[in-house]
Each structure stands twice: as structure tokens, then as C-alpha cells.
Amino acid sequence: MTTTELMPKEALKKYFGFDSFKGEQEEVIKSLLEGNDTFVIMPTGGGKSMCYQLPALMSEGVAIVVSPLIALMKNQVDAIRGFSEDDGVAHFLNSSLNKGETQKVLSDVKSGVTKLLYVAPESLTKTENVEFLRAVTISFVAIDEAHCISEWGHDFRPEYRRIKSIVDEIADVPIIALTATATPKVQQDIQKNLGMSNAKLFKSSFNRPNLYYEVRPKKDVLRQIVQHIKKNEGKSGIIYCLSRKRVEELAGSLQVNGIKALAYHAGMDGNVRSRIQDQFLMQDVDVIVATIAFGMGIDKPDVRFVIHYDMPKSLESYYQETGRAGRDGGEGHCITFYSYKDIEKLEKFLQGKPIAEQEVGMQLLQEVMAYAETSMSRRKFILHYFGEEFDEVNGPGAEMDDNTRHPKERFEGKEEVHRLLKLVKEQKEMHKAKYIVNVLCGISSAEVDTYKGEKSHFWDQGGEHGEKFWHAVVRQCVVHGLLRKDVESYGLLKITPEGKQFIETPTSFQLIKEVDFDIDTDDAVSVNKTPSGGAADPVLFSVLKDLRKKVANERSLPPFVIFQDPSLEEMAVNYPITIDELTMIGGVGRGKAMKFGAEFIAVIKKYVDENNIERAQDMLVKSMVNKSGSKVSIIQNIDRKLPLEDIAEALGKKTEDIIEQIETIVASGTKINIDYYIDDILDEDSQEDIYGYFMEAESDSIEDAVEEFDGDFTEEELRLMRLKFISEVGN
């Protein structure tokens, strides 16, 4: 590699304006400039990209950067262009470019303007790209997110396994591989696949002392998330979900609760995703609800919280995703909602895959479950997983997790640990935790029958404690170094030298009592009607009904058009005193709140002040009545004047269900015009009769209307006219 005469520190100042490097950046850069294969394991926020960006700018030719995601490439290219006068300094070459854009990239590379060329593995392997790159000067190849090479990595990509052979075809240049997460097994896989066994290794600590780790039972999740965001108003956050459907539902629920949130997943158009990324980076949006496709390489330093609505598939994923928080060294709150049912769902996803892949997936899930259920220091647990020891008493960030800050009960476990280790030894270290626990608890299974576990001296010697207890003992023995899980054999328990010593001479071992997470999952983000079943304040309810009557008379409208009784009841439970709080009441959209709300919140505020009422700290979380996608679809199809029967069929529902959904939409204050549909089923005179009835009615009851018209109109016809009436006069 031919380089400039500048020293790395001088180049850093010249190109980026910084005076000093972070951590081991300078040593990494020197290693690469000297022509060495270099392997960098550096946590998110540690400055990995600088390790190849600066050498690329300092070297002759163009550096090829292999990157897994188009979003990641765009973000990196935008960032490097921000430091240069010429946008041609960095380009990406992938399927998102049209023919003209591709030609511009190739021209800039050929002319020597481009110093960094980002490519996906798929693009790198195309014959025409290989031939083109062979004809230009390559400074080195950087492989970002290198864990994708390993089947044990959290984001395995088979295409990555071809990189080495393609690079060998293009040029004989140094390779730098970089990853933010690598267990010893993943590290070994990467080096073997890239032929980098002699590479210079730079491994930074995985400890992020500013991150606070917390795992909560998965109950009443929407309420907890809304409360957390409201308490941290204006702060940036990311919420990760496993499915696109969940992403869209949750984003919609946050929006109806007045939160600036957007959904992001791989099923969206590329331009839309880019726009959402930019809105998040520019702080036009506070919260992104996303699948794991979001966040890879999003260089936003001030993300203040990362929430996992669903448990991820591996601890590597969890570590990298939580690593999006607090990259500037400031506050970073990592909240995970956990239920064992989530693990069961993920296990089902593995069914039908090749056996080896199932084994890897199951082992990774076991580690995730162990992390979620443990009552020991979460930081110590994570760092141990990545092969790093941590002092949970005096280490940096020692009290930055829920378990350490709120310690669980401890008890003497010497006998139990001794019994467990002796059983593992008796079974010749040939089994996983589940088998060992089944033997201790006297539980029959196919594996227990095959290996005659019931004949063990330890059969049912721990049944009084139960399975969960013994799984916790296994976890704590692994983290404290008495047992280890053999990765190569998918998690067989092996006794360490320390474990053998313990068998010979048992000593005191303090076990931690673990939390029981075996509760129901809050699957529907659209749940949560009233907080803790609170009863309405009868005096306030009466006051609000009188006010509604007064407002109705002033506007010559029936009272039910203003607010319906259930909405008034919720107001009498929650005492909303701002327009924003009023919009969180069921049946009150922003339009209705703005139109009628001022007098109501003034009366409620006066009532609260005069009666010294302590309002509940947790304001009602407004549920998304029906899924946002369904709501939008209904409104769009009505705008297109589609028959309600056709809309119902398209959504897989009955016409009655669609009418019910429209009633909810209209009750919240949205104006909807279904005249085109009503005109087909009711003549003008009939419409006038029903319209006039509702204008004079004390109640919007359909039963009363049916009785009034004595069967002249069907219930459905009356409901549709009620919709028309409320939409026109109330919204």
C-alpha cells in the first residue's frame, strides 16, 4: 500500500478535524497501513469506521468496503462526504442505483476521485464488478459487520463466505475485518473463513458503562412504553420488534398517544426507509419502531433508550441493538420485555430448518433466556458471554442494571452446586442442561429414557426445588466458572478445573433467588381500556353531563354528538386537563378535542384544583381501536367510493365489522363521507326522516331508533345514517 507522507494523527486532523484517536484506533490504522491483515472487535460506538476510513483517505487507490445493508452504506457515505469537498470521495455500488448513477460511480472510481467504495457481498461477486475492480488500484478490503460470516453470528449471511475467494481474484491486498460482537467461537470462524489466522487482533472491552440494562415481565407493555417515552419527552429512542406486523401496530399505537413515532422495516420501499432514517437523524421523529433491519450503522450518538418489545434471537443481536443507545457516552436506558412464550415462538420458527441450524438456533435462544431470567449482574453475564471478566462490585458501570441496583435474595447453595457438578461428572459430561435438570427433578423424556437417566444415583434428588431452580443453578455455575458450555457440541456441559476442585473440596457458594417470568404475554398492543379498572368520579361525571347538555344546546346539537357517555366516564376517571391528555380518552380524536374540548378541560381542571384531587401519575394509554393499517385502508377505500361489502372482503371481515370500525373512526372525530353508499340503499326522503330524528334525539341508541320507526328501516340502515349524521354535524 502506497500512503501519504502524513502520520495518522496529522491525517486525522487534516481530514476529520479531530486531535486524538479513540481507544486502539491509531494502532489499528498503523497495522493496516503497514500492510497487515487486521481483525478489529470493537463495540458499537467505539469508532470502528474510522479504522478503515482514515487509511483509505491516506492511501493510493480505492478501498473496497463490504457492508451488509444499503441503509448502512448510505449512512456511511453521507457521513464521509460531510468531511470532504468532493462528494465523489465515497460511493456505494448496489441494486438501489439506476444506470446513470452506476456509471457516475464507476467513472469516479476509475479517475481516482473515489477513496471508499461500499459494496454488498452480492454486488462484489458479480462478474462485471470483479472485472472492473481488477482494472483499478485497490488499497485494501474492509469487511464490516464481519460476524455475518459465522453461522454463530447474530446476522449470518451465507454470501459473506465467498468474499475471500472473490478478493483473491481482484487483488493481493490486506484485509481488515471489523465487528461489534464476537464471541470466541465467532472470532475463530471469521479468521478461518477469511484466511486471517495470522492477522493482528485488536479487541476492545465490550463494557459500555453508561448503559443501564433492565428486563421487565411482558405485561401491560404498551402502557409501560408510553409512560417511559412521555417521561423522556423529546429524547430519541428505538423500539425493536420481531415482526413487521407488530412494528406497524405499535408505531400506530404510539402515534395515537401523541408520540412522534414511525415504523421501519425491510418490507418498505427503499426511498421511504431512507426518508425515515433522515427524519430520525434530523430529530423530526423521536421514536423509531423497527425490525432489526434498523440501526445497523445508524450513526446517531444521542439515542437515549432502546426498548425490546420482543426478545431477540441471540445475545449478539441484543448486545448490538442495545449498543445503539448512548453512543456519545451519555445516558442510555435499555429495557427488554420478556416472557417465556416469546422463546417458544422463536423455537417454532426454527422447525423445518436443517438440524445443524436448529441446534445453533436453540443454543443461542438458551443464552437469551438465561440472560433474561438471571438475577445476577446482567453486565457480568453479557461480558462473560463475550469472553470478558467483570468485577460486578467495583467495575465501571457496576450498578447499571436492575439486578445489581435491586439485589435479589441470596442463599447458601453449596450442597446444590455440589450435587449438580457430581451429576454432570457421573454422566461423563455428555449432556446439556435440560437433561441434567430432568434427572435431578425425576422427569422422564426421550433422552432420559435413551441414556437410562432414571438409573442415576441422583435421579429425583432435587425434585423439591423444581426445574426453574436447577436451570438457575446451572446458569450461575457457568458464569462463575465451575461449568462451561461446549459451543462446538451445541451446549454440552463440561466441568472446568475450578469445578473439579469444587467437587473435591466444596466451599460456600451464594446462589441468587431468581425471578419468575412465567406470565402471560401482552400480545395485543391494542389492549388497555381503563387504568387499573378505576371507577368514574360520580360528581365530576354529573358535572360533565351538565356541561355537555349546555354545549349541545348552544350549538343546537344532540348531546351525544359532543362526547358520548363512555368518553365522559373516562374523563371522570383520568381527569384530563390538557388537550393532549383529552386526546388520550377513548372516542376523542384530536379534531373532536380541538372542536369541543376547551370548556371540558377547563371545568375538569377547576374541579381537580378545588377538590385537591391527586391525579393518577399514569394517564390512560389510548388504545388503537382496530389496527392502524386497517383504519387507513378503510378510509382510503371509502375515499375511492368502494362498496362496504368489497372493503370487508378485501380485509377478510364481515360488512358489520367494517361498519363497527367506521363508527369507531367517526366517534373519535374523523370526518368520513359514505353518501355514495347510503344513496344506493336509501332514497332522499328516508334519509331526511332519519337525519331529522337524530337531530332531535336525546340518545344515539339504535334500539330507540328502531322502535321509533317501527321497523320501517333496518338496524344497518339506521347505523349508517347515524354515521352520516355524527360525521357531518359533530366532526
Spell out the blueprint of helices and strands.
Layout (H helix, E strand, L loop, with lengths): L7 H9 L8 H9 L4 E4 L8 H9 L3 E5 L3 H12 L8 E4 L5 H13 L4 E4 L1 H4 L2 H8 L3 E6 L19 H8 L4 E5 L4 H10 L6 E4 L7 E7 L3 H11 L4 E5 L3 H13 L4 E4 L5 H12 L5 E4 L12 E6 L6 H8 L9 E7 L1 H11 L4 H19 L4 H8 L16 H4 L4 E3 L1 H13 L6 H9 L4 H5 L16 H13 L3 E4 L5 E4 L1 H8 L5 E3 L25 H18 L3 H4 L2 H10 L4 H4 L7 H21 L17 H12 L4 H7 L4 H13 L7 H7 L2 H13 L5 H8 L5 H16 L1
What does this structure look like?
Helices cover 48% and strands 11% of the residues. With 731 residues, it is an alpha/beta fold. The chain folds into five domains: 8-203, 3-Layer(aba) Sandwich (Rossmann fold); 211-405, 3-Layer(aba) Sandwich (Rossmann fold); 410-512, Arc Repressor Mutant, subunit A; 531-610, DNA polymerase, domain 1, CATH 1.10.150; 628-730, Arc Repressor Mutant, subunit A. Strands 3-4-2-5-6-1-7 form a seven-stranded parallel beta sheet, with helices on both faces. A six-stranded parallel beta sheet has the order 8-13-12-9-11-10, sandwiched between helices. A two-stranded antiparallel ribbon has the order 14-17. Helix 23 (538-555) crosses helix 27. The N and C termini lie far apart (70 Å).
